[in-house]
Amino acid sequence: MSEGYKPARQRSTRRGTLGTAATAPVQGRELRAQGRKTMGRLLDAGMRVFAERGVHAARVDDIVRAARTSHGTFYLYFPNKEALLRALAVECAQELDDLSTTLGAVPADETGYAELRSFLDRFFTTYRHYGPVIRAWMEGQVEDREVSHMGVKAFTDIATALGKRMREAGAAGDDATISALMALLERFAYFLVSRRLDFDADDTLDTVATVVHRGFFAAA
Amino acid sequence: MSEGYKPARQRSTRRGTLGTAATAPVQGRELRAQGRKTMGRLLDAGMRVFAERGVHAARVDDIVRAARTSHGTFYLYFPNKEALLRALAVECAQELDDLSTTLGAVPADETGYAELRSFLDRFFTTYRHYGPVIRAWMEGQVEDREVSHMGVKAFTDIATALGKRMREAGAAGDDATISALMALLERFAYFLVSRRLDFDADDTLDTVATVVHRGFFAAA
Amino acid sequence: MSEGYKPARQRSTRRGTLGTAATAPVQGRELRAQGRKTMGRLLDAGMRVFAERGVHAARVDDIVRAARTSHGTFYLYFPNKEALLRALAVECAQELDDLSTTLGAVPADETGYAELRSFLDRFFTTYRHYGPVIRAWMEGQVEDREVSHMGVKAFTDIATALGKRMREAGAAGDDATISALMALLERFAYFLVSRRLDFDADDTLDTVATVVHRGFFAAA
Amino acid sequence: MSEGYKPARQRSTRRGTLGTAATAPVQGRELRAQGRKTMGRLLDAGMRVFAERGVHAARVDDIVRAARTSHGTFYLYFPNKEALLRALAVECAQELDDLSTTLGAVPADETGYAELRSFLDRFFTTYRHYGPVIRAWMEGQVEDREVSHMGVKAFTDIATALGKRMREAGAAGDDATISALMALLERFAYFLVSRRLDFDADDTLDTVATVVHRGFFAAA
DNA sequence: TATGAATGAGTGTTCATTCAT
DNA sequence: TATGAATGAACACTCATTCAT
Asked: What pTM does this model have?
């Protein structure tokens, strides 16, 4: 695991795109260089503050302080606090959607193990970046209908991909099993990221991959 | 699994004890019959409101309304909102401590499966009652040092018990594995209780027990 | 004009009734003596501040200061600022409805003049008390649908009563004429109350009554 | 009444003058062609937005959007929002001053009626264009001393002209009577313009002229 | 023991005005 | 001359906690 769960480097490609398209500022006006920079600062600051304080406890004041800007500026880019979460959720959902397509077959042998391990690595990496958003989804803290639905869809997609690979491998792959796996993945990622656990990253990944491979993908 | 995850009946024995001892009202004075009744109503109301709204979103107003009493009365029994959570946490921690002692050996055969299944049943039942408290612990929503620590201890005890039985069964039972199992159990219980999943209870229990037995307790 | 446009004495009868019935506090809970007193203070303060600053420019802060209470208390009695206006509007609408029933026949002779004069006196007195509410209606500053409608109804009732008496007296009493009269009455009352004019009250009333009698009630 | 209360065509002559003289931009410098054009756009936009939203509720943002320019530009031409109102008030006051000189004698016969009717027509036309400014004056929404005074003067001039003609016609023409007439005119114009009334324009004018002629200009 | 009432610090949001380019 | 961006004071409203009876 060369990359591990270290803070994801800014995938500026995505931000660059979504910052102007999916999450355009209030009146839908176009942003120039400076504006895009500020919006980026706000999105990053939002992610950081959400991570530290949690989505619910995060204060607009915390966010603008973290972004080294003012209240007024915040509302220049987002109509309200929820909208910032929404913007981040859009990014995250896209990332998870991409992720769900990357899972190859997971046979019982070593190659299956490797495939799974690599997938888990990617999942944890995404979680390290978008953890607060994913948690908000999981913990039912998202009021916004649309945003909530995006979360359901993103997770359903991953669950579907995992289920398909389970059944290919001869395992049951029923809904309850898949849910249990999703539960394990999401919460374990949270443990890792919140540093409740401070295991060696590579070893931990080995262990989890082993357990999941054996418990969820073994033929009935 | 005759009982399933249905609402646990009030284990009033515990409440009676804790109401006067561990979570004595503000002035530390002994409670008479009426006082004990009011305190019970507040604890029950707290649990209900925490379950409905979540610990964070729960308002003192919601709680006193649910307990059919007044703000003034609430603060006669608890110095602040946190203290109510603490009182419930004490109950919950005790319940989980009890639980951790009930796990027998989990061999690879059918008897191990049965033991595990029965343990999971008990765990989910406890979760159905104390879910909000456990979630508050897990989701890092507990500010209070002491309360937070109680959660850690309760979960460590269960983890230790599980780890011991894993190693007895010849499995690795290392910390990462145990954490993954705890993650699975807690979050899956949350899914169940919050009705994000609506599977048949018995079947679900079978499935999870199977997965866990195979994935976590199998000899290396 | 014995009574004149002096500050209306508190018609506490009405307040007593409406304070608890039509304009019940937030959760609809019953008010005790102290609560009713506070609500009364808020309603009076609201009226005063609306009069001084205008409905739009009135700050909750001004109102609670005038009522010698706190922000929190205000929101204990009204869900928002608009609701205070609504409560006052209910009172005012009732007063105007009553007023509209008190206009007797207005023949061409002295008795008609006296009837009209007495009605105008009552109208100006009401305006002195509820001026801000009436202005808010007239100046289209009321966002609330329902409140706005109450204003329309109250004024339509008065207009209808006036029109009926005009036609009885042999005057046209068409809609445009009635509207012109309502315009005159409302704005002139505003002039009087806002002390843009500082005429002798009795003389002024004589003059207006004469003009209206001659201009609007004379046979075609 | 050939013209009625339809939107007044831009009397650009006036605008041209005032744009450079009375309401010079912040720095007091002369405006070139482009500058005059921008200022004109701002004045027109101001009038439009004031009419739509009301002076109080009008936002600088609305105005610059309507003028298809930017915040920065606005403050290049006006030191603050109030100054825009002031500039419009200067135009309006001039218009009303002109108006006050156009009222000829109003005898009791048909010619007096015609004179009055024609004057009312002109007044309502002016109101259609400058209604928001006049309302701001009337409703005491103007903070600025000087602007407020301009309003008083403009209305006093008209009132004086009306009073003079009343007395010539043998009517009392005292201050209270004149005020009542001004009240009627202003508010009725507002009703008309704000489309609270939607009468046929010509008929309405006939009616009001009749009422006013009979009520205010008849010999005592 | 109980309660309705009161409080005020804290939070999200708006908008006139200023700044940098 | 023009503009997009930034600012922060002001305001409505919430809610844990305290008070008076």
From this structure: 0.86
